[in-house]
Amino acid sequence: MPDAHILGIETSCDETGAAVVRSGQEILSNVVASQIATHQPYGGVVPELASREHLRAIVPVVRQALAEAGQTYASVDAIAVTQGPGLAGALLVGISFAKALAFALEKPLVAVNHLEGHIHAVLLEQRLGENADLHFPVLALVVSGGHTHLYLAQVHENLWTYRNIGHTRDDAAGEAFDKVAKLLGLGYPGGPIIDGLAPHGDPHAVKFQISQIKHPDRRDQKQGDHRQFPAEDGPHFDFSYSGIKTAVLRYVETRNLKPAIEARHRALAGIDKPAVEDIRGLCDRQTLNLVASFQRSMVNDLVMKTLAAAREYDVRTLFVSGGVAANRELRATFEREAGMQGLPVFFPSRALSTDNAAMIAAAAFPKFLRGEFVAMDFCAEAGMALR
Ligand code: KG4
Ligand code: ZN
Fold it and tell me: What's the pLDDT tens digit per position in 285-331?
């Protein structure tokens, strides 16, 4: 197998990433410029601001990734870039830059689906560890701020193929973490904050019901629509997280928690980069119990649906990836429950769970080996499906 140094570029959402990965296996550099401080005052990603921040960061981030890897523009073998899904304006910054580099340097250009990148973040580290437990078919749960998807993954002669067997009907799991944190005046992004607070509350204090979806997705049956995930044969395991967000809102209203939330919001606005301990100091027991109960319900739903799909499709290995895969309770619950089914489960390290460009460079390697390059007229695809 030839050695290849691939420069990966990722700008699909609110992180500007560049990385150099050798032959899909060895991370030589992985630079991520986070935009958290920019979006924090709004409690969520503002697309126009994200594009502007990518424009500001892209050149220094790519230069730093090359320098840290001991590489130059001339020495890399290919450029890989996220094509979608993501924010159109944000994707365009990375794509335009990657096209310009590939054109000027006369290097091949590889387009990567962001979701495939998340799946390859697991593979990247498993290959590094020479893990012998990797058997196919693999079931991958990609769970982040924009996505909650289940894919069956197969590989044949470096051609990876994916089949979607579940997706969220409304909010993504990470979006629910972010919205609930915002609703409770805890700050942004919500996932890591709730992860840090939940162990201090009682997860049985508040009972939440998460929708169990039995009927097929009507959007899949409409003719001629721009559906992201066409219906395929076999059972689907869909998710729904907008209901639990509404249930938290109702709890807040009926228990009259609003004044305490507003006071917390004001207090946090006065602290520069508040740590979880600062936030915890501003939460009463009722709020900590609410947070712990919310996280427990989310985790149980994600784990139980994924394991039901794993049994139905008789998979041999489970991957859990994407920003929410950094969640400690999610990891522990998956390990315990999958272990009871005798199913090996793999996560990326916490740093590779959230958006980064090493996963894009890693996912590009099998395409590089197959000569799957894109022409200069390829476009960003905000709603890109993974197949
Ligand atoms: O993969 P990612 O960086 O970006 C997307 O592709 O969306 O995921 C970001 C999401 C955010 O919603 C964030 O709140 C969530 O992942 N997240 C977490 C944790 N760390 C990040 N959710 C739960 N627990 C965490 N520790
Ligand atoms: Zn992502």
Answer: 999 999 999 999 999 999 999 999 999 999 999 999 999 999 999 99
CA 321 / ligand 2 centre spacing (Å): 9
* Residues 214 and 190 placed together within one structural domain of the fold: yes
- 134: tokens are 């990797």
Q: Is 185 helix (H, G, I), strand (E, B) or coil?
A: coil
H helix runs in 106-171, sequence order = 114-128
Q: What tokens were used for 112?
A: 């990567």
185 inside domain: yes
Cα–Cα dist 304/306, whole Å: 6
Give the helix/strand (H/E) hosting 263.
helix 258-269
Q: Which residues surround ligand 2, an ion (CB under 5 A)?
A: 144, 355
Percent of the chain residues past pLDDT 70, beyond the cut: 94
Task: Give residue 228's pLDDT band: very low, low, confident or very high (50, 70, 90).
Answer: very low
359 shares a domain with 322 = no
Give the pLDDT band of residue 244 (cuts 50, 70, 90).
Answer: very high
Q: In the predicted model, what is the mean pLDDT of residues 171-193?
A: 96
Number of domains in the chain: 2
CA of 10 to the centre of ligand 2 (A): 10
Together in a domain, 270 and 248:
yes
Q: Which residue has the tokens 């721009």?
A: 226
Instruction: For the full predicted model, state whether its pTM sits above 0.70.
Output: yes
Ligand 1: residue of 34, 324, 384 to mutate (most ligand atoms within 8 A of CB) is: 324
Q: Which two tokens stand for residue 80?
A: 């890989």
Mutate to test the pocket of ligand 1, among 118, 141, 144, 244 (most ligand atoms within 8 A of CB): 144
Atom of ligand 1 at shortest range from CA of 86: 6
Domain that holds residue 317: 165-343
> 325 CA to middle of ligand 1, Å?
8
